[in-house]
Amino acid sequence: MYRHVEESQTLLINTQSKLLVNQNKKNFKFGFGQSPFLPPKKVLSALEKAVHHKEYSSVQGDPELRQLMSAFHKDHNGLEVHPDNILIAPGSKILLYTILLAFEKADVFIPAPAWVSYAPQAKLIGHHIIKLSTTFEDKWRVTPKSIQEAVKFKKNNASILILNFPGNPDGLTYNEKELIDLAKISRELNILVISDEIYGLLNHNQAHLSFANYYPERTITTTGLSKWCGAGGWRLGAAFLYNNIEPEFKQALIGIGSETYSCAPSPVQMAAKTAYKSYNNIIDYLDYQIQILKQIGNYCSDRLNASQIRVHAPEGGFYLFPDFSVYSEKLKNRGINTSQKLCEQLLSDTGVALLPASAFGFEEQYLAARLAYVDFNEPEEGVPFNLNKDCPNIIEGIEKLCNWIERF
Q: Disulfide: which of 215, 287, 359, 360 matches 9 by Cβ 3.0-4.6 Å?
């Protein structure tokens, strides 16, 4: 007997989109969230110069890199973590799994919507998953009330809450009051919080607030190069542990790393030293990306809302989570009664690839999907960004989507 593990929906949609391209069919790649921006030239050059580094690093990661990351994030938004309490690995995804695996049995509170891999990881380990309900009206935010209501479903002593902001799939974030309120309930219930802040540096106002600043005693913050530095395939992530972490917990994390991934790729760690050398040095690089992403995200949300596809304007990252429920009766009359069927029919009819809401923790019948607005080309150096010139696929794809739904 084998475990039943489905392929990650994000990777699957990328494969399906490539199949359409191979069949010479026009495809609008809104399903896979990969940054179109290249890393800074200095970082690319640093990787080239580091190819001779073939040695293993320590499981925790290169000491100098951990010092740089500590200083970098303190300058970014005041997140203070000692370098000895930073773990570096081949992507934050494996670190999330490692943290969950460190517990024999736990209740894992996961919002709906949430990134596609949280629940499968918890399920693989054998933890008890408790879904936290959210609403469109509350901008898909977890609230103390939703946590308090979910506590009655607990089965184990250990409690873990996974937060992600700016969020995948919704592109939204938390304000300070919301974080303070969540910290209060987490403290009362002694919950370990994994705060996935991989998109934090792409906050559209450059005003990201780390949850650990409000709940420092039991928050682990995950981050990495993939989103803000456009280096997803380089596989470099980090976990910022809380400074008073229990020695046995920390040792469990290091031990699991030593028996699984061993270490992050050494050349990438060397290049990451350049990326994390100074937060002030990359502010312009971040601002350049953010201004482009804001324009595209606001264009998409405005156009979708104009077609009565409900969606919140993005606050960070490069995602939208459009709600098609206004059209639910008309869609059902055409045999489209699940988000999976919605996305399949949309892809077949228009070439527009979205990910269904069911992949993010919703019931199959909820007609919503994730849209990643990354199908565009980065402008040439020195050339101002122009939405019409640089984003033809975005504009055409959104128009096809809206025209398709309006015909129902």
A: 359
